[in-house]
């Protein structure tokens, strides 16, 4: 009579990586809903395209690497990457943008480094940066909120634009983006940045139709949606609190200081918080455990660094938004941060008490 | 320090880092009373049940022992005695599987109870204050008490510490899920435990006594509070439930806010911690003179019909206890000794309960899935989520440790403080990738320990080697020094003008002269010896190169011929004799060795495989035999003694192999007649030649005598008579060769020349002999019928 032998501990809280990933995907729903509500079907189409491409890429590479396909294919990490990429793409970008981005993210950024757990960079953000640098035109054609469009865009129109470049009526992306008054509309961040170069103050920029009453038509709600999702994840303890808190705080402090120094040339703190990809970045991007720091102290440093970089790039950089670049730079710094933020082990380096 | 007590009185505690809240599952057993002990059919008592050395056995197989009788004596402080849990007979002392994660076997005493449970003589001591501290410690040591919380540290070491103790901490936290043994013990035996605490208090006189108990044990807390109500310096600290708050270091942190520095005992901080069960055992030992022979064990798990706490005798097989709780384990599901977090699975259910066993867990599939079931989760890659680092009570970085462990990076593991890991399992419990982190650490720890042992060994070997090198060097120097000194002394002596110096000088000169003379002599001798050795070498070369069947015969003949030639010179004669002797000895040796080979050789292979050296050697032997026969014949013809000839041939034929038996008891001539006409002719020729030779060799009887000696030596090796006939022509040739040589001039050179000529001739002769042997063998196969 021999029993099977196992190493302790024998019980487990039955948490799995895949369920964690699923939870994060669910948490993006409020943000995606806001995106759909204000910007139409574009991002949903890109998300589906990206997910399909990601699964194909994951399957192919896993097969080539002779890995067990089923458990890894459905561990949710590839799907999450694709969803995050799809969210961050311009709604009316051509279909191949999301496909190329997704393939790049999975095959090169993730699997070539050894698959889940071994990638030094956040796959979604690395793909986004690659696309932004390689296809600057397509990647900067941001669609204005539906309410500001001169024409009504339905699902079929969006599909046609994404797959052929023109609506069934024959309008191009550029034409769709044009305001009734004849100027091309951009994102709030882009607007502020462009106006700054034109010599306008921030307050004057805030009059732009894309910004609306608060911090940008639609964008504020999208950010609110991701904030909601992020709080849900925090409540579920699926993501550590330290990174988003330190990121948002760092961004807040930086923009606050700048705003105090020169309110005319600097946007308000809340503008920074609720436009662009701030909330998506805070709760869904920089919390990626694989490419981030591991200890609490390390995460605080990591988040603070990301916040600082986002502010600096937004303020001084060549691109209007900065989350992707900031995240990649922080990914590079993560091992170093880990190295210098190791916690003190129990019973070691005790300072003399009493 | 006062602030610590104040804080405790306020009810606020420190926190250790991390910790988890696994399902407690204590409800299964915490309300049922402890079942009394039952005696199993057999008790398996491991001799070593604690940290430290095993005691020396004081019983032997067949001894009858009484309950509580000592079974092993201890001599060092780190060894702890064991006692008979009940009365009975020791049936065996053997190596058995002990409760150990590795399933290790160690020496165990097998006790077969007699069922009477007869106690040994006990001395009850109702008031321990009457005893001296030494006596109390002695009682504790003799009762075999070691820490009952899990580690099994000898208690007498802990209670006899000389350090000044500020805090005596009683560990009643029992943080591990399922286990309620301490809880139940507190509920039922608080007064006894308090007695134990008082005894330790008496021994150590700490300033404060803190009893750490988790808040989920309300009944036990109440019982404790009731028992300690009137004692001022005992503080009951109800701490938040969190795993692993029962760890020694963690509990110290919770209660006092201090951390035990890595690698030292808490006593260095003025703290001593005791488990409640140990306190109970101390009270029992000091007051009731009862050694540690039973303990409370939680038998829990949803696979059991009636999970409960039981008093179990030390040595009770766990299977007996689980059956007592209604578990037949028909599916051979695994059993865990200890809790689900730190316990280890057992290889079978005959593992005994020992002093540190607090729980036996028989989980259902829902509680703890079998690793073979489809629902059980599998390990995947680490995603660096860091949850493990968040829960680690030692504030380690489990994920980094895991990478270094997988990479076997021992330097990095040491840097990450692997050995501060208490293996509580919290990291593996929370890991979303299901990585068995603790397992990796255990393996890494074992590897590092192994490596350390190897390093120590290597270091020792190096030191030894260096020492040896130095010693050799020293000796060399010393020797050189000695020689130098001696030489100098000699020189100095010689240079003095004393007579002694002169005599020494002359002595040296004498010695030199002697050496020279010896050398000259040796060179002379060498000349003669060279001849000898040349002969010897030619013999060997002819033997090997010519593959001759009759080499030895040839040599003998050569020698004899040489002897004949030298007939006139007595000196030459003597040399020849010596040579013959040498050769005979040589042949003897050769043949002896061949003999053994021959025994293994089957007769039939003789004809078929001529190339085989064995066959050839046999032929050589045969040839020797023939030569002997011929010589005899010659001798006979000279001395007219045919009877002796027949005798010899008889002996020769007697040695024949079965397939040549037909030649038995037939005279040499007859045999040859029957076998081959040619052989007959050859024999006749030989006879004629031999006669001719005899005439020439008259008066060379001495050489014949020598030959006689050699042939008698060879007699026993005589083989196939039939085959021997084939060598006759070769013999003839040899004789002829000898004759030609005879005509040549100087006797001294004859042997040399002979060998040269013979070399060629023997080869030819050998070839002929071979051919003949084939034929003869073929005919001798037929001969039995023709006979």
Instruction: Pick out the low-confidence regions of chain B.
Output: 537-567, 596-613, 641-646, 648-653, 655-674, 699-704, 714-732, 740-751, 783-787
The global form of chain B is elongated
- Count, helices of chain A: 18
Oligomer: heterodimer
Radius of gyration of chain B: 49 Å
Q: Between the first and last Cα atoms of chain A, what is the distance in angstroms? A: 58 Å
Please describe the biggest sheet of chain A, giving its number of strands, its sense, and whether it closes into a barrel.
Answer: none
Span from first to last CA of chain B?
Answer: 122 Å
Helix residue percentage of chain A: 55-70%
- Approximate shape of chain A: globular
In terms of structural class, how would the helical and strand content of chain B be classed? alpha/beta
Strand content of chain B: 5-15%
H and E string of chain A: HHHHHHHHHHHHHHHHHH
Number of beta strands of chain A: 0
Task: Give a description of the structure.
The complex is a heterodimer of chains A (354) and B (787). With 354 residues, chain A is mainly alpha-helical. Helices cover 60% and strands 0% of the residues of chain A. The radius of gyration of chain B is 49 Å and the shape is elongated. In chain B, helix 16 packs parallel to helix 22, helix 20 (668-675) packs antiparallel against helix 21 (677-696) and helix 21 (677-696) runs parallel beside helix 24. With 787 residues, chain B is an alpha/beta fold. Classes of the chains: A mainly alpha (354), B alpha/beta (787). At the A-B interface, helix 1 of A face strand 14, helix 12 and helix 13 of B.
Give the SSE map:
The complex is a heterodimer of chains A (354) and B (787).
Chain A: H1 17-27, H2 29-39, H3 42-64, H4 69-73, H5 77-88, H6 95-110, H7 123-134, H8 136-139, H9 155-164, H10 173-177, H11 188-197, H12 202-205, H13 219-235, H14 242-261, H15 269-274, H16 278-285, H17 296-316, H18 323-340
Chain B: H1 2-10, E1 43-46, E2 56-57, E3 64-65, E4 72-73, E5 88-97, E6 105-113, H2 133-142, H3 155-159, E7 167-172, H4 181-204, E8 208-214, H5 218-228, E9 234-239, H6 248-256, E10 271-275, H7 276-288, E11 294-300, E12 308-313, H8 318-324, E13 336-337, E14 344-345, E15 359-361, H9 387-391, H10 398-406, H11 410-415, H12 426-430, H13 437-495, H14 499-546, H15 551-565, H16 570-600, H17 605-608, H18 613-639, H19 642-654, H20 668-675, H21 677-696, H22 701-715, H23 721-724, H24 728-743, H25 747-786
Parallel strand pairs in B: 7-8, 7-10, 8-9, 11-15
Antiparallel strand pairs in B: 1-6, 2-4, 3-5, 5-6, 11-12, 13-14, 13-15
